[in-house]
């Protein structure tokens, strides 16, 4: 039989103070969510650059100069994005917003859509109009972007966030070894060697997986850019940028963009949509069976079903960033299970004493 606490008033105040402290901590985490997202993005980029640092170091270059070379290449890419991709994307997005209503209005009058309706007996134009009107308004585009375009409204905020991400990325890349040693120092000495080995395997495997995923998305974006130019698209840079971010999600990203790109090509014409769909579908097959095995190499092997579940869960929690972070997190958990949990269970050959 349980007895009442000796000091019920003080116990109640202590519990209430603990609850208030937990609520305050949750509100504080919510208020700095932008900073936490910047840190997570910087860590994501640093992990993707770590394999390049290792590759340069294997050629006999010192760690300092390896980091300097990779950091210089990263800054050159950032400068190229600011100089070429950002202005082109802004112009093409503005063009898309201005011309989307007219394109949607003229869609039912197209000859190819009328022939499709006559052949199938379906009111395809009504369905397409309803779907397109829901996603081509500025409000819907801002909502679909998951906050990225809303952040772009505040130029100062966007520039400062990008600057913070670049600085943190360079810091994480240059001090990744020191960070791992500091983390190992928090572990008891008798477990430090095992912890360091598992942590090294996690950073190496996950870094390879992240770098491979970014490389595949860059190749995918380049293919989409060329295809958009071939079919006469007026927004090739915008479509390539969308392909890059969408295909960062493994397995399902390319399939999703196949639908997105085909629907977008319908505004050009049925022939353009058919050419894009067939060509991009062929590329997806080549990517899956030829490019991906060569690019990913010996990166951690994550079962496809876990990739899909992790991506869906991360997207539901944090949007696109959550879907991206779900893959490294899932891979890290798998390594821990394979290297620590499974060996411990295998060592338990006898039942515990009663």
UniProtKB/TrEMBL annotation:
Pfam families: AI-2E_transport (PF01594). Keywords: Membrane, Transmembrane, Transmembrane helix. Its main location: membrane. The chain crosses the membrane at residues 20-44, 64-86, 151-173, 209-231, 237-260, 267-286, 306-337. It is found in: Membrane. It is a multi-pass membrane protein. It comes from the Bacteria. InterPro entries: AI-2E-like. Belongs to the autoinducer-2 exporter (AI-2E) (TC 2.A.86) family. This is AI-2E family transporter. The lineage of its organism: Bacteria, Bacillati, Actinomycetota, Actinomycetes, Micrococcales.
